[in-house]
Amino acid sequence: MDANGQVIAALADPTRRAVFEQLRGGPRPVGELARDLPVSRPAVSQHLRVLKEAGLVTERKDGTRRLYRIDPAGIAAIRDYFDGFWTDALAAFKAAAEAEQKEEP
Fold first, then answer.
1. Strand pairing of 57-62 and 28-29?
2. Which residues 6+ apart lie within 8 Å of 102 measured at CB?
3. Residue 45: which residues within 8 A CB-CB, separation 6 or more?
4. Rounded to an integer, what distance in angstroms lies between the CA atom of residue 101 and that of residue 94?
5. CA proximity to 11, closest of 79, 83, 87
6. In the chain, helix, strand, coil percent, each to 5?
7. Contact 3, 38 (CB under 8 A)
8. Taking CA 48 as the corner, what is the angle to CA 45 and CA 53, rounded to the nearest 5 degrees?
9. Which of 12, 28, 56, 101 has its CA 20 to 30 A from that of 6?
10. pLDDT given at position 87
11. Could you give the 3-state DSSP secondary structure of residue 5?
12. Which pLDDT value is given to residue 39?
């Protein structure tokens, strides 16, 4: 699976997506993330591992705990991927419109 596929697969899980969305507000430890979810702390750790492997999350040690945050490079990569779809869709729309104009009498 390529990197973009790994990101999409990582975010396909609703709980994992909820963990990721919680990180929008800034770095957070596992315990704080787990407090707001209907899953155990070890389950949140597993979800964070998948997000980290997909390049969406980074971690840093803060004393005895680890803080997780969104990785801007991972977000930029997936945004570029989806921007490519938008660029292709606009180009195809333009080509279809121009072809249709040439066909009109």
1. unpaired
2. none
3. 30
4. 11
5. 79
6. 70, 15, 15
7. no
8. 130
9. 28
10. 86
11. helix
12. 95
Structure confidence at residue 105 (pLDDT): 66
Residue with structure tokens 């155990």?
40
Extract the tokens encoding 40: 């155990």
d(Cα 87, Cα 76) in Å, to the nearest integer?
Answer: 16
Q: Which tokens is 29 given?
A: 């430890």
Task: Count CA atoms within 13 Å of residue 73 on its CB side.
Answer: 6
On the 0-12 / 13-18 / 19+ scale of CB atoms within 10 A, 67 is middle
Tokens standing for 94? 């333009």
| Tens of pLDDT, residues 54-89 | 999 999 998 999 999 999 999 998 898 888 888 888
Tell me 54's DSSP state.
T
Q: What is the enclosing helix (H) or strand (E) of 30? A: helix 30-35
Which residue in this structure is represented by tokens 């072809």? 99
